[in-house]
Amino acid sequence: MTYNSIKDIPKIGFGLWKIQKNLCADTVYKAIKSGYRHLDSASDYGNEKEVGEGIKKAIDDGLCKREDLWITSKLWNTYHHPRHAKLALKKTLDDLQLDYLDLYLIHFPISLKFVPFEERYPPEWFNNPDSPKPEMVPARVPLSSTWQAMEGLKREQVARHIGICNYSSALLHDLMNYCETKPEALQIEAHPYLSQEKLIRLAKNYDLEVTAFSPLGSLSYEEMGGAQQSESLLANETIKTISRKFGATPAQVVLSWALNRGTSVVVKSISDQRMLENLGSATLKLDQEAIDAISQLNLNKRYNDPGVFCEDAFNTFYPIYE
Q1: Are 11 and 21 in contact (CB under 8 A)?
Q2: 79 counts as catalytic
Q3: Catalytic-role residue among 3, 45, 193, 303
Q4: What sign does the CA torsion over 37, 41, 46, 49 have?
Q5: Domains plus CATH for the chain?
Q6: Cα separation of 307 and 234, whole Å?
Q7: How many other CB atoms are found less than 10 A from the CB of residue 203?
Q8: Three-point CA angle 71, 76, 78, nearest 5°
Q9: Does the model's pTM come out above 0.90?
Q10: Sign (positive/negative) of CA torsion 241, 244, 245, 246?
Q11: Which of 37, 54, 146, 239 sits CB 3.0–4.6 Å from 29 for a disulfide?
Q12: Alpha-carbon torsion 309, 80, 76, 219, what sign?
């Protein structure tokens, strides 16, 4: 299959955040074998080399061709300067063993001081991790300059499509006012406890494809201490009632709600059974009553918030949302 448009993005993607290196290649291979064709990666995840190994094995074994796969990756905060963005993408492509990405995204609207690859890769958030009190060090790089670099990568066709992650409505309006090439995709945290109705509506008004990360809410953050097990959407009584009504699992119900809203999703599991279960949400059709009931669960609860985790984990107060 050849993907000609951002609208062709497979609606259920396989997320690669927090997959351990020693499991990553096999997990990617299993995901492709299970039927996933959209892989969502990032240099900051620290496992792109292993992702590339899994992709190569799947292609070599005849599970798919390169053109059957939609591969997304992201430009990290320390590579926002135009002279570093192209180097960052080349490093990602080398690690993934690919000639191009289907989609390249600015990971956060946060510019940090450059860290050379040979010094530390991926550099993560700290500029000086060996210091007695390590911290983030912002860089004076406007987002407009970073976007110009992204436009150049698209012109060179090393990134077939370009977009942004974790942007607010105000940043999106601003970007649309200065860009020469419009962003094609917006990836944001979105789930029933953070429905993001206005931002999704705005993005679609601008004709952006919207992808929801952490579509199951707290699950991605419980093991990191960023959420309590009691916050799990899969234990929510409304979700459980709907799952019984439709003969589906709670996870399938939540993912189907996201798909019904016109967003794609990226979801992760190392379990073969759950990989297939998550893919099965594509065939679940919820009625409007169920969709409305799930939408009413919104609490504006954000788990991936730099205004919280940068201070807690990286000794730097750096909010990007109100």
Answers
A1: no
A2: no
A3: 45
A4: positive
A5: 6-227+264-282+301-314 (3.20.20.100)
A6: 26
A7: 23
A8: 155
A9: yes
A10: positive
A11: 54
A12: positive
- Do 282 and 259 meet the contact criterion of CB atoms below 8 Å apart? yes
Instruction: State how far the Cα of 242 lies from the Cα of 245, in Å rounded to an integer.
Output: 5
All residue ranges of the chain with pLDDT < 50 are none
Distance separating alpha carbons of residues 99 and 66, to the nearest angstrom: 10
Helices (H) and strands (E) in the chain, counts: 12, 8
Cα–Cα distance, 164 to 106 (Å, whole number): 5
Question: φ and ψ at 169, to 5 degrees?
Answer: -60, -40
Cα separation, 131 vs 220, whole angstroms: 29
Query: For 224-259, what is each residue's pLDDT tens digit?
Result: 888 888 899 999 999 999 999 999 999 999 999 999
What pLDDT was estimated at residue 223? 84
Cα–Cα dist 145/178, whole Å: 10
Give SS3 for 109. Answer: coil
CA distance 104 to 215: 20
50 and 82 in contact (C-beta within 8 Å)?
no
| DSSP-assigned letter for residue 234 | G
Amino acid identity of 289?
E
